[in-house]
Design brief:
This protein is of the alpha/beta class. It has a domain of 128 residues. Strands 1, 2, 3, 4, 5, 6, 7, 8, 11, 12, 13, 14, 17 and 18 form a 14-stranded mixed β-sheet that branches. A two-stranded antiparallel ribbon has the order 9-10. The longest helix is centred in the middle third of the chain and has 22 residues.
Length: 554
Amino acid sequence: MKYQCGADLARYTPGRRGIVRPKSNCAPLASLPQGVSVRGGPSRRRAQGETVTNGSDTAPTTGAPAEVGAQRTPKDNLVVTRHETTILGKKIAYTATAGTIVMSEEAVGEGEKAGKFEGVKPRAEVFFVAYELDGVSDKSKRPVTFSFNGGPGSSSVWMHLGLFGPKRVELDDDGYPSAPPYRLVPNDVSLLDVTDLVFIDPVSTGYSRPVEGVKAKDFHSVDADVESVGAFIRLYTGRYGRWGSPKYLAGESYGTTRAAGLAGHLQERHGLYLNGLILVSAILDFGTARFGPGNDLPPLLFLPTYTATAHYHGKLDAELQALPLSVLLGRVEEFVHERYAPALFLGDRLPAEERQEVAGSLARYTGLSREYVESSDLRIDIFRFTKELLRSEGRTVGRIDSRYTGVDRDSAGEHFEFDPSMSATQGPYTATLNDYVRGELGFQTDLPYEILANLYKSWSYKDVENRYLNVAETLRKAMGINPYLRVHVANGYYDLATPYYATLHTFAHMGLTPEQRAKVSMSFYEAGHMMYVQKESLLRLRGEIERFVDDRAI
């Protein structure tokens, strides 16, 4: 059973950073009987799977060509469907809501009209997919998790169809897809039995778009992104009656940056306190990942992942290859803080003999030649590494997951032509999302689903000019204000985008008290950035998240 519902505009106010909840003409999900239209139209029983929309039997198509000169009035466009699935052997029933909510702002005059209210103006239509377990009478005992990915510029599809949601992209146990066409399979380890789920596509990703006359770039900065996603969370929490529920954020990659920012913003602006953050492949301090003159942190913090990668591809000497990965990484971490970091600190003051010793150790732990290490001034750039490790074989290794390999036309270059770990997953996730949303979830649109919009190159960091973006302090402060806020961090050993050792470094330098450190847990996987594409890691991660959410009272 499917139906559309509309609602009055939500008010999102940049500067004031708020939402005023409007009166909704969409009844709460729990009160909607099957087969009854929500807005207008006859209240009659409908056949399973039939759609009712604003009194019409034809759903509107978002993004369809409009009459010349006509301006479309933005409206909420939501489709609600009911489903059943089996998770860990137990059958459950759930309700899915897919569509767009209009985010608006209260317009305030300038100049002579400064401070004068001039009405409410739509700003953007934000797409989301939400899943709620049916039959829940007391929402105060039912957690809700808001999930998004990173980029910046990524949609929420990866954790939606890879980890949390009731459907999962079909991959083999090692995370590789079959030939197209691709398909979804039931996710029998979905987290829907543990928490309700809301997947958010920030503006310009997925089907989320600014409305006509509003510039997309107004949403493409560190603070504006946090404000707009926070506005959506505030609106959803009120509209769907979740103020009394345990609330979590789940972010991946830049989504962890956003989640840390939201932990502070939601508390300070909306008084919305969270129970926990689930950070998958975290990056809170960009100084740990930005290679360049004068910044010696990245070469140090990436080295253990270089070693893990070389070990996986069989490029280390016999002694190191024979070691279990965990033992090998322990050795490398010890080398980093006892020998490598002091050497880089000395710079040109490092004695020649010690330089030769460090270069030899680096060559041994990376699988690269001593000559290459020396010519790199003992500082191996990540993109050079992805090209150099398997150069003799004419192959590159992935950045998102360094177990994947690719082939470039130019074997002499310094940078791979594409990330083979991204190309292996983008096609399957894009195809299945488009088919799933239009088919099973019933949301119709002519817009392209921007799975990975090219925003990172133009993303504005004006809010943090003349320094590296670092939201670790925002998270520390949020944990100080809310002593019950907990954090779980999932790390992949083969992740060359957000290396695990950089995350360890960041949390070790946050200045947390012993009590706060006890609220932080971490898990590690012999996998990459998206560790959940590998079946074994997916099962472990699901267990870690379930325990994390179930322990919310601790």
